[in-house]
């Protein structure tokens, strides 16, 4: 399954779990732009993998983050002014995708606005993290989807 994430700056991590949201059902968790990490809930994030495009950065390591118990997850990012695509190894099934964001660079509304696609379907349009929570604050997007061959 190809998950296209078109962003202009930050994609901090991806947690992929079965749609019933039981933490024991985490199938894949990626620390985008960073190394392997175990969260306060025991979720084991692998180092940044399965991506095409963008570059990693630890620019966020200079900030303290609000709205999270796992600040280290927000210290790294994968960013680009073009597309970033994550090709996740998934079979058929129902899934939930949790995208964790934080704005660490821009300081005003509408400076970074982007779309998120799963496959070829746009699931979020014109997301502006700064307009949602401001700077250096954890923000999650939860997306359910199904894969059928």
Q: How would you characterize this protein structure?
A:
- Strands 4-5-3-2-10-13 form a six-stranded mixed β-sheet. It has a three-stranded antiparallel β-sheet with strand order 1-9-6, with no helix packed on it. A two-stranded antiparallel sheet has the order 7-8.
- The longest helix is centred in the C-terminal third of the chain and has 5 residues.
- The chain has one domain: Galactose-binding lectin (Jelly Rolls, Sandwich).
- It is globular.
- Helix content is 3%, strand content 44%.
- The protein is mainly β and 149 residues long.
- It contains one helix and 13 strands; from the N terminus they run ββββββββββββαβ.
- A hairpin with a 2-residue loop joins strand 11 and strand 12.
Write the layout of secondary structure elements.
Layout: E1 2-6, E2 13-18, E3 26-31, E4 37-38, E5 44-47, E6 51-52, E7 55-57, E8 77-79, E9 83-87, E10 93-101, E11 114-118, E12 121-127, H1 129-133, E13 139-147
Parallel strand pairs: 3-5
Antiparallel strand pairs: 1-9, 2-3, 2-10, 4-5, 6-9, 7-8, 10-13, 11-12
């Amino acid at each position: 399954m190809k998950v296209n994430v078109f962003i202009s700056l930050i994609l901090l991590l991806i947690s992929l779990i079965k749609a019933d949201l039981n933490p024991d059902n985490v199938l894949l968790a990626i620390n985008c732009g960073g190394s392997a990490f175990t969260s306060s809930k025991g979720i084991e994030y692998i180092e940044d993998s399965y991506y095409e495009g963008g570059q990693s950065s630890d620019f966020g390591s200079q900030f303290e983050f609000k709205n999270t118990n796992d600040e280290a997850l927000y210290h790294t990012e994968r960013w680009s002014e073009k597309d970033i695509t994550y090709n996740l190894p998934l079979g058929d099934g129902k899934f939930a995708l949790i995208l964790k964001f934080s704005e660490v660079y821009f300081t005003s509304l509408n400076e970074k606005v982007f779309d998120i696609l799963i496959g070829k379907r746009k699931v979020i349009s014109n997301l502006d993290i700064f307009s949602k929570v401001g700077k250096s604050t954890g923000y999650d997007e939860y997306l359910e989807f199904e894969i059928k061959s």
